[in-house]
Specification:
- The complex is a heterodimer.
- By secondary structure, chain A is an all-alpha fold.
- Chain A has a domain at about 60-265: Orthogonal Bundle (MetI-like fold).
- Chain A is built from 12 helices and no strands.
- Chain A starts with a helix and ends in an 8-residue tail after the last helix.
- Chain B is of the alpha/beta class.
- In chain B, helix 3 (about 115-125) packs across helix 4 and helix 3 (about 115-125) runs parallel beside helix 6.
- Chain B is globular and about 70 Å long.
- Classes of the chains: A mainly alpha, B alpha/beta.
- At the A-B interface, helix 9 and helix 10 of A face helix 2, helix 3 and helix 6 of B.
């Protein structure tokens, strides 16, 4: 009986229906970004970091909105001895301020500083790096020597000096200080990419099409040079957040009643023996934020590299 | 010495010199090249690597980059000397009236844009078309170059296409603006043989259809035989022989051209070894005096120490060699004496 299975049944079509064959021919079309997403999600720590980052960002926006002025409002009826409750999960500090809402406000400040500082870093770095890489010659030489000079200075003390002179406690001054000292790595990365891209065949082809320099730089070179900048920027968020915390810890950052993770740490050190947990709250938040940004950067670096193959 | 101007000439290059100032010295990559391209005809430029073919093409496009520089000569196109016109005007001609396709289809497309997007860009740079129109034109061009299912292919990225497909996309891009001249720099070198034939057929069909001229750069004499009407043979930055394609194949005059033709293996012919041209191309930093080919030439003569004139050996057939038109060494009585030769050389360099 088994033998007859292989034989064609009289009257039945010999070939498979045409529709099935057509389907075989259709290779699924995946765009660059679909590939990037797949590679990113394969990086498990990066995927976890992404979730963590989203949670941190959402809570830094949502909780300050819910809490209203709770993050700086002192109270005479609440104090460190109050048990934690639903409205104050982390209790109250020595001034009767709701620690949870203060923490969320501090997280918001840190993220804002990190985000905008990195925006400056990426913007400045991309601009300077692309000019140096595209124009080349003495322009490149001058710009890269400036980069060398900035890199040779101890960055943190530069930031400290800038903030001390321009007015400490101002969010914008801190953002600018971090941004103006941090662009060098991004500039170097973009320049290196541009040197490579300038010689590439597709840039030559674009020139042969009659594209202007501006079009070549903006449309053809920057998109290809951006991947390392995105990675460096994500890692830069972690750096900026830590720098801000350090500034605040030294008293040059934001001062109370403004909240930042750094000045919460400063405040907590006075109560280190009586309320050891107070130093853990901002500390752990800071660690989580930095870890999330770092792993996110790692995952992006792997995902944005088109040479990396996906194991199907 | 140079083919006469007539209204059927599309592009005329006269005495082009493109030099590269390298750290080791001056390299005369293109040293006094002259030729012209007729309307609707295909000119093949042949020569081995480093003989200045590509540099000549890039000079026409004015895409020579530092440390290279066009130091002399004229390139006449549409009544204008392309060497003198301002950058903006040149940019308008590039990709619009003169397009170029490159050797490496694998890397000549930008990996971050879809194929349709890139063709549309080529159109919108010059055409001033809206995004939608440019897209339609891109799909139309893709079907013109024989890509099946063009609407879907337009959405694909270069890495999703094979080499032949990518070269078709490059051709679609180059032709999307209906150029008068297409410069093809080794368009089939990176492709395998069956695909080469397809691409050549495609270029021929599109040439008839768009009535454009092609400047075809290659080291593959088979491609030239297939495609070209006229041939320019280059050696060490100079044109050594120039004629129509049949003459060059059937009555090659210059020993270099003969050597090239002899080194092609032929089907059905029993040979133990392929003919080769002995020796290597002279170091461009240290060119010999006189004929540049003399050290490798089987018919080298004492007179070859003097640069030979670029002379007509038959109507429309020019060769840079001392041999008589019949291909014999100039006999003692008739041969121009050393002094005559020196005069000829002096007259040539004075030009």
């Amino acid at each position: 009986m088994a033998r007859s299975e292989g034989l064609p049944v009289p009257g039945a079509p010999l070939a498979r229906p045409a529709t099935e064959i057509d389907e075989v021919d259709l290779v699924p079309v995946r765009t660059y970004w679909q590939l990037v997403r797949r590679r990113f999600l394969q990086h498990r720590m990066a995927a976890i970091a992404l979730v963590l980052m989203v949670v941190l960002i959402v809570s830094s926006i949502a909780f300050p909105l819910i809490g209203g002025d709770a993050w700086f409002k002192t109270s005479l009826t609440h104090g460190p001895k109050d048990p934690s409750s639903l409205t104050a999960p982390l209790g109250y500090d020595n001034l009767g301020i709701n620690i949870f809402f203060r923490l969320m406000r501090g997280l918001q400040t840190s993220l804002t500083i990190g985000f905008f500082a990195v925006l400056i870093i990426a913007g400045l770095g991309t601009t300077i790096g692309s000019i140096a890489g595209y124009v080349g010659g003495w322009v490149d030489n001058v710009l890269m020597r400036v980069v060398d000079i900035v890199l040779s200075l101890p960055t943190f003390f530069l930031v400290l000096m800038f903030v001390a002179f321009m007015g400490s406690g101002n969010v914008f001054v801190i953002i600018f200080a971090i941004g103006l000292t941090g662009w060098t790595t991004a500039a170097r990365l973009v320049r290196a990419e541009f040197l490579r891209l300038r010689e590439s065949d597709f840039v030559q082809a674009a020139k042969a099409l009659g594209a202007s320099d501006r079009r070549i730089v903006i449309r053809h070179m920057i998109p290809s040079a951006l991947a390392p900048v995105v990675v460096a920027s994500t890692l830069g968020i972690a750096d900026s957040v830590v720098t801000e915390a350090a500034l605040s810890f030294l008293g040059f950052g934001l001062r109370p009643p403004e909240a930042s993770l750094g000045n919460m740490l400063t405040n907590a050190q006075d109560y280190f023996y009586r309320q050891p947990l107070w130093i853990w709250y901002p500390g752990i938040t800071l660690i989580l934020l930095v870890l999330a940004a770092s792993f996110l950067g790692d995952g992006l670096r792997d995902a944005l590299d088109p040479r990396q193959r996906i194991e199907a | 010495m140079v083919r006469q101007d007539d209204e059927r000439t599309l592009l005329q290059i006269r005495d082009l010199h493109t030099h590269f100032a390298t750290a080791d010295g001056l390299v005369k990559a293109v040293d006094g090249v002259s030729f012209s391209i007729r309307n609707g005809a295909t000119l093949g430029v042949v020569g081995e690597s480093g003989c200045g073919k590509s540099v000549t093409a890039l000079s026409v496009m004015r895409l020579i980059e530092r440390p290279g520089r066009i130091v002399g000569g004229t390139i006449t196109f549409g009544g204008k000397n392309l060497i003198d016109i301002p950058d903006d005007e040149m940019r308008e001609i590039r990709g619009n009236q003169i397009s170029m396709i490159f050797q490496e289809p694998m890397t000549s497309l930008n990996p971050v844009y879809t194929c349709g997007n890139q063709i549309a860009e080529a159109v919108s740079i010059h055409g001033g078309m809206s995004g939608g129109e440019a897209r339609k034109r891109a799909i139309e061009m893709l079907s013109q170059v024989g890509i099946p299912d063009p609407a879907r292919r337009a959405e694909e990225y270069p890495h999703q296409l094979s080499g032949g497909m990518r070269q078709r996309v490059m051709i679609a891009m180059a032709l999307s603006t209906n150029p008068e001249l297409l410069i093809a720099d080794e368009p089939t070198t990176a492709l395998d043989v069956t695909i080469q034939a397809q691409i050549l057929e495609l270029m021929k069909a599109l040439r008839e259809r768009n009535r454009m001229s092609i400047m075809l750069i290659t080291h593959d004499l088979g491609v030239i035989a297939e495609m070209a009407d006229d041939v320019v043979v280059m050696y060490a930055g100079k044109v050594v022989e120039q004629s129509d394609v049949n003459t060059v194949y059937e009555h090659p005059h210059h020993p270099y051209t003969r050597g090239l033709l002899a080194s092609i293996p032929r089907l059905g012919e029993k040979r133990n070894r392929l003919e080769v041209i002995k020796g290597v191309v002279p170091n461009p930093l240290n060119l010999p005096a006189g004929c540049l080919f003399q050290r490798r030439c089987p018919s080298a003569m004492p007179i070859c120490n003097v640069a030979p004139p670029f002379q007509e050996v038959a109507p429309g057939h020019l060769s840079r060699c001392w041999l008589t038109p019949a291909g014999d060494p100039p006999s003692v009585g008739e041969a121009p004496s050393e002094q005559v030769a020196l005069d000829a050389a002096a007259a040539l360099s004075a030009e």
